[in-house]
Amino acid sequence: MNFASDNASRTAPEILAALQTANTGPAMPYGADGWTERLTARFCALFEAEVAVFPVATGTAANALALSALVPPFGAILAHPHAHIVEDECGAPEFFTGGAKFLTVDGADGKMPPAGLEATIGDAGIGFVHHVQPASIGISQTTEAGTVYALDEIRAISVIARKHGLRLHMDGARFANAVAALGCSPADATWRAGVDVLSFGATKNGALGAEAVIFFDRGFARDFPYRRKRGGHLLSKQRFVSAQLLAYLNDDLWLRNARHANAMARRLADGLAKAPSARLVHPVQSNMVFVELPENAIVRLLDRGFRFYRWRTDTSTTLRLVTAFDTEASDVDAFIAVASLA
């Protein structure tokens, strides 16, 4: 009964089966294999565009290396203060860009408001030699609050990016959950809305360990093979990452998994909304629920074997509850029942 993270979930059986199939006979190393070749074609079809695809093993690598292709050492990345790239990458974006700095733009429910973004860029000192120069905007989709940027919100941010000559990066660790929530095509959620580079996540949604950097503007991918190699993510047995991603996309497994996770979060939120002592903190739009509960209810849940994180501090009474592709409805209902006890 683990609601701590979708990273705690199992690997999807379809992906394990694909790995077993890929584990037959030799294959050329470093991405010169049939799985990786097919993967590029598969992503081009998925996004309805000619894209450059680079499989990597972790989300940190995807984000940090993607940003390094967009941002010079003297550059700045604009992001929400609670974005994963700001708070949870242990300085990897700064390291791989060679020293870029974050300029943060706060906003409700994990989102950057266009007005605040425009104001921050205006105050950044563009052209002033003593200041870092804005180079990229980074948005999390879904956000760290579990909310989802609507298509018009992404487009509004991309308009600001283009106005100032900046590039737009999307941290899509939970991209599948966002697309499932929006009910749109992957193309509409990315390059058609102005996204230049996507960190495409799979690990949180059923993969064993597989992510990809997707360049919609392939000009930015010119040096990326060297960045990936230098960053330690040109895997010698690349077929085993590519095979996971192929299976993830096959028969829309990625969307089926995400829809289930989202539905379990909705079920959880609807049940908690009826509990007199519970208060939902953010709109529930994907697979994360943030809820305030009294301390006695939290202790009771822990005693019954439920696992979750108190949000931001060890004494917080706000919980982050994350559902996954393998979350059982019975566990959701049991959580609601225990949390609702007087």
Instruction: Tell me the radius of gyration.
Output: 20 Å
The helix/strand class is alpha/beta
What sequence of helices (H) and strands (E) makes up the elements?
HHEHEHHEHEHEHEEHHHEEHEEH
State the low-pLDDT regions, or none.
Answer: none
Overall number of domains? 2
Write the layout of secondary structure elements.
Layout: H1 13-22, H2 34-47, E1 52-56, H3 59-68, E2 75-79, H4 84-87, H5 92-97, E3 101-104, H6 114-122, E4 133-140, H7 151-163, E5 167-172, H8 175-182, E6 197-201, E7 211-215, H9 224-230, H10 239-249, H11 253-273, E8 279-280, E9 288-292, H12 295-303, E10 309-310, E11 318-322, H13 329-339
Parallel strand pairs: 2-3, 2-4, 4-5, 5-6
Antiparallel strand pairs: 1-7, 6-7, 8-9, 9-11, 10-11
